[in-house]
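Methods — Computational structure assignment.
A single polypeptide chain was analysed. Its primary sequence is given first, followed by the predicted tertiary structure written as structure tokens.
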Amino acid sequence: MLHIENLHAEVGGKQILKGLTLHIGEGEIHALMGRNGAGKSTLSAILTGNPAYTVTEGTITFREKNLLEMSPEDRAREGLFLSFQYPVEIPGVSMVNFMKTAVNEKRKYQGLEPLSVSEFLRLKREKEALVEISNKMQNRSVNEGFSGGEKKKNEVFQMAMLEPCLAILDETDSGLDVDALRIVADGFNRIRKTPEQAATAGQPATSAIVITHYERLLEYIRPDFVHVLYNGHIVRTGDASLAKEIDEKGFDFIEQEYK
């Protein structure tokens, strides 16, 4: 689904990524761990098309298309979704209108007819029940006045509505207490399509990149692979047990091999 080869990237003239290679198959969950500045959020910004970041070398293929040639809007329409570390507020724009526009823009890109009002409301109720979110939140402006936990839950609802094939959870555990973290993670697990479920539905499976500093989130969203970033590239790959080892020992036992 996603193939990143020898990726080099910079921001403000400073090189951050220095030869990162990563391959993600359909339905796979990959966790990216590392200290601040290792390149985790830089990678998410590049994947979603943030213009502040410049790719200087390497390739990214997403669903057999050159991702780097696509606009941020088309990347989203192709099935890429970013859950922000700090979701922004959009005063004056109701969640209902925001989501209706987003869903129908994706359908238009896919050559489908827009949903009618009744069809949209039926889909909205279905997804609200799935992720256990109050419909009262949808009558407010996007994230305006929401608590940190409400903003993260709202993003899970957006993910449920848009049904991405690749979700990037960029430190979605930041600022959440244990209960809120569990709710957000459970919401993702409910909307995720496993390869088996996707085959039955005739749709792509849900893959994910989970960016985190801590093992706690990965207790709820179980990764197939854990990668450690250091100095702009992946220096260690393992299974979920690697995250537990990092939680116990920190990053020093890995980084000292490369200093």
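Note: The CA atoms of residues 156 and 207 lie 15 Å apart.
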